[in-house]
Amino acid sequence: TVLLLNRSEVQSEFLSIAEKLSSSEQPQHTTLVMLLEHLYQANFGTHCDLDSLHHLLKSKTLEELSEIYASAAEAQEVAATTSDPILARERLQSVLRDIASTASFPAITGEAQPRKLHTIPIPTARCYTYSWDQDNFGKCRESPSSC
Question: Buried b / exposed e across 19-34, counting CB within 10 Å, b at 16+?
Answer without folding.
Answer: eebbeeeeeebebbbb
